[in-house]
């Protein structure tokens, strides 16, 4: 079978070496005679897996010592509720920067728990979508926190500069950005990410939270969403998603062996550039996002003649290029090219797009 490349936005491709390793030790992990998913989360064997995964993530992201790393349930959307429950007191409001559908969803969920100030920062300039400079955002200096989503997975907009919030805690949804490029964790109060894009399988959520933000959760916060409870119990207050945690650990090892975040980020830039450049040089395909805000991970593009969409998707699938259909809210196509997507996959996609254009123009 020739290589199949899966461009799904999430759950996404996993690195092949990771799956090969997981498969090889699936039935008998580390000579225990058991699968790792059959081990008690409190056993010393699993604790070693858990500790190593955290240490490797800390190394990969240079996470400072005054941050806790939590391995939670509930996905990105779980954190849409957990963040206000933990960080938004009744006498304050929170600023939510809206750059697309995920940040909007986060704000809408947070409104169930407190006063939310939505700040739309997307503008159209010369027919291109872009994000207003963060120095012009009307932030409230008394806000409990500022929430934003650096990479909008659906819309394909990415903000590379970290906004300056003048001391107001900055909270970021890094579900589709984490580990794709270097970021300075110390600029953030809290980072969260569902695992199924750049970390591992679904079912695991990583939360990186500065210690001084623990301990102020609303009394009605469910215990499994209470950062203090999770931190005090090393993310094992209830049974954590152990197999996803183990697989995330394998992905972290793979990433370290591949040269870390810096090395993968230059490959990511190369992959994205290949695709955007091709689209820009074509009259058959288009992308309407300003070049400085184009996502490195999720590349939306449209066929100028949208009546060819189905043919494009069918032929792509036959060529081994899967899951290119755009999100139902924006239409068109979307190629998600997370860390696990090799550059060969993007080259193959571009070649396919060139041939499709030739055959249809
Ligand atoms: C995928 C995604 C989510 C949702 O994650 P779930 O784990 O499905 O809840 C949230 N935010 C962003 C930016 C995402 O890409």
TrEMBL record:
EC number(s) on file: 2.6.1.52
N6-(pyridoxal phosphate)lysine carried by residues: 197
Keyword Lyase attributed: no
GO terms assigned for molecular function: O-phospho-L-serine:2-oxoglutarate aminotransferase activity; pyridoxal phosphate binding
Cofactor: pyridoxal 5'-phosphate
Positions of pyridoxal 5'-phosphate binding: 76-77, 102, 153, 173, 196, 238-239
The protein's annotated pathway: Amino-acid biosynthesis; L-serine biosynthesis; L-serine from 3-phospho-D-glycerate: step 2/3; Cofactor biosynthesis; pyridoxine 5'-phosphate biosynthesis; pyridoxine 5'-phosphate from D-erythrose 4-phosphate: step 3/5
Similarity annotation: Belongs to the class-V pyridoxal-phosphate-dependent aminotransferase family. SerC subfamily.
Name under which the protein is recorded: Phosphoserine aminotransferase
